[in-house]
Amino acid sequence: MPHSKAQKQKVRVSMSEDTSSDHEDGEREHFIACCFPKGCPLKCPVDIRTSVKVICNNEACQQSGYMHSECFDDFEEEIVAYLKGTGRARSWSEKQRRQNIWTKKGYDLAYKCCACQCGKGHLRKDLAYQPPKQEDEAGDLQNLVKTKRKKKKANEKPTVNVASSTSRPRRSSQSSNCSQLSESPPERSPISPLPKTPTKKTRANLHENNCHFFGETFGRFHSNSNFSAHATNVLSNFLKRADFSSFQGVLPRHKVNPYHIKMEDELNDDARHFVLSNLSSRETCTASCVLCNRELPVFDKYPLIDGTFFLTPRQLNSSCVDVSQNGKAQYLAAVCIHCLEGIPNRVKCKLCNKEWDGSSHQLGTMYCYDIFAASPCCQQRVACNACGKPVVDLSEGKKFFWEYSQSMKCPHCGVSGFHCIKPISFFER
Q1: How far is it, in rounded angstroms, from Cα 356 to Cα 75?
Q2: Among 6, 281, 337, 406, which has the minimal tally of Cβ within 10 Å of its Cβ?
Q3: Cα 159 to Cα 64: distance, rounded to the nearest angstrom
């Protein structure tokens, strides 16, 4: 029996839907519901190719386990705010709270505000998750850096005048004596423009890039009309980094990224020029780890070293390079990535046998204070060099990391000095 016109049209529509269903299903498989605990404010599906994966400890949870990256940023912001008034996290800096959210010591405090929508579990970021790549080069760290440099060159004008150093926004934690040039570990310290990464703006704040400098020192340096020629000559003395295999062989996969490794190469980067200029003036292009004496090549762009640099007012050992910061004597020291990560052995304090963990420090950059003094593990670490009595009560501690690197007056005997900076021989591996 011949089909009516309406029946034929219905058949054609049905066939059309069938032939397109595979394509639509292929697209839909990337889009699922956002599991933001307070309800997704974006009111749209999550593309798992650009999302953040979380894990609920409730095995019966029926939530998707994925959040929009924007929702996840808000999720982390709420956790950081919660940590500000919680236990030992109250004494942490903003950066320390952010870095410790998904570590054991941070999550043990924060899990209460990570409740899942299922009502029976708590969420935790899946640090091992690798989202499907939209392009082959999406996860390639080296291509990311090359792309940034190409964009930067494309945006440069024919004549580049390097501006003199200007004041930048500071936090209340900033020291007037140590106002710039460092990248802080997890503690309160000055901040500056952050490395541009492919992550969201709030995620970028995880790194308090304290790459301001110490004021007038580089103001004079940058105002020099011969700066560009001098900088070019300085850079020619150092190696060019071919790849990032030295990091990939030591760091876990999830840490080989611009968040844990300083990658951005800024035109007026005072910290980089400070390090390279001082090393160049001493006719050296290497640095030695103050802990294991490993010889480390120094590179012309970030990451500067397979480890990190820091400044200290006391010469920890003969490998430290004496430098001047606003007329004050300082020493430029370095720690290798192996000692920072505790590979193969953890660094321990000889005074109390506690482990020193340097894995929270950003690699390839420089801090403006002694990173060993910044986190004293026992009262002996803050003992007066003259009378042996503590100059700091560790139950209260100092407000900022850099304060431990300042000269202090002993409240017991009145002797002033860098009491919290102990010889490097007080550590062992």
Answers
A1: 30
A2: 6
A3: 52
The label of the residue with tokens 């709030």 reads 202
Name the token pair of 374: 């910044």
Torsion of CA 385, 390, 396, 397, to 10 degrees: 10
Element (H, E) at 279: helix 270-281
* pLDDT tens-digit map of 374-418: 989 999 999 999 999 999 988 888 878 889 999 999 999 999 999
Q: What is the pTM of this model?
A: 0.54
> Taking CA 331 as the corner, what is the angle to CA 326 and CA 337, rounded to the nearest 5 degrees?
125
Strand residue runs (E) in 357-407: 366-367
For 124-147, letters b (16+ CB in 10 Å) and e give bbeeeeebeeeeeeeeebeebbee
Residue 67 CA to residue 65 CA, distance in Å, equals 7
Structure tokens at 197: 């990464």
Question: What is the residue type of 92?
Answer: W
Residue type, 305: I
To which residue do tokens 């009595």 refer?
A: 389
- Please provide the distance, in angstroms rounded to a whole number, between the alpha carbons at the two ends of the chain: 90
